[in-house]
Write a structure and sequence with these properties.
- The protein contains 9 helices and 14 strands.
- The mean pLDDT is 96.
- It is globular, with a radius of gyration of 18 Å.
- The two termini are 13 Å apart.
- The longest helix has 17 residues.
- The strands form 2 sheets. The protein has a 7-stranded mixed sheet. A 7-stranded mixed sheet has the order 8-9-10-11-12-13-14.
- A hairpin with a 4-residue loop joins strand 3 and strand 4.
- The chain has one domain: Metallo-beta-lactamase, Chain A, CATH 3.60.15.10.
- With 278 residues, the protein is of the alpha/beta class.
- It binds zinc ion.
Length: 278
């Protein structure tokens, strides 16, 4: 498995980083898929229902003005992932080089790497950005009490130390020149996608709008982890449409194989995923 992958969007240098990977299953990923149809689709994709590889792909973007990290992986010292920092180091980036961290949502595989086990912020020079509804949801104890314990515990541990370094996002304007949040709620309350634009080239980072390539072709099949299923499906259509219209390179955090890149187009009224790597 490759550790990292470099590519350009206009003048921006991008680095996809493989924080880790795991094997999921159909029960987790396609809760409402009709069983017979699901089995046919899995067969067509050459996949087994109890063996669905998944990646955790973080993204570093070096622009003429900023060094931006989108999502931070699980963080070191846990049972999963945690490869982001050593890979960044090998690629010549120190944590203090990063001035902007965009968190697409507050699940463990996206915010785990923000704060170390001693409670220190890992990227000391960075301003952290999260959509305001996401931050508010995961920092209010009455919400956390209702959330699954694994998610609530990570939020309790990783979010409060960021408060002094935080800017909440409430609009789709540029966070830094050429990089903006796109509201895509559903997977969580304030989940965002991230659009990158330079020299007429686009990258759309889906984050967890879809968790598996099959959910490009079948946007109506939501996952157990999608907190608001109806909104998840709506967000998928909106974001896929945007990716197709801008002919964007698409990065989808969990799509195998690493570096989780491809393009989305419409064919015969269905969305289609065209991976850049087989
Ligand atoms: Zn995720």
């Amino acid at each position: 498995m490759d550790d990292s992958y470099r590519f350009n969007i206009g003048d921006f240098q991008c680095l996809a980083v493989n924080d880790g990977d795991f094997i999921g299953n159909a029960d987790l990923l396609f809760v409402n898929a009709p069983e017979k149809e699901l089995l046919q689709v899995l067969k067509r994709y050459n996949l087994k229902q109890d063996h669905l590889p998944s990646t955790w792909t973080c993204l570093l973007i070096k622009t003429p003005t900023n060094v931006v990290l989108v999502d931070t992986g699980f963080g070191s010292g846990g049972n999963y992932g945690g490869r982001l920092l050593p890979i960044l180091h090998a690629e010549g980036f120190k944590p203090e080089d990063i001035d902007t961290v965009i968190l697409t949502h507050a699940h463990a595989d996206h915010i785990g790497g923000c704060v170390d086990s001693a409670g220190n912020v890992v990227f000391p020079q960075a301003t952290f950005y999260m959509w305001y509804e996401e931050w508010d949801y995961w920092t209010i104890e009455t919400n956390l009490k209702k959330a699954p314990e694994w998610a609530a515990n990570v939020a309790r541990q990783k979010l409060p130390p960021l408060l002094d370094h935080l800017e909440k996002i409430d609009s789709e304007t540029d966070i830094v020149p050429g990089i903006r949040a796109i509201a895509a709620p559903g997977h969580t309350a304030g989940h965002i996608a991230v659009e990158v634009e330079s020299g007429g080239d686009y990258l759309l980072n889906l984050a967890d709008v879809a968790l598996h390539p099959i959910q490009i072709e079948y946007p109506e099949w939501y996952a157990r982890l999608d907190q608001y299923p109806k909104q998840t499906v709506t967000a998928r259509h909106t974001i896929y449409q945007r990716a197709a219209e801008t002919n964007a390179m698409v990065l989808a955090f969990h799509f195998p194989p690493f570096p989780s890149l491809g393009r989305i187009s419409k064919q015969k009224s269905r969305w289609k995923w065209q991976p850049s790597h087989e």
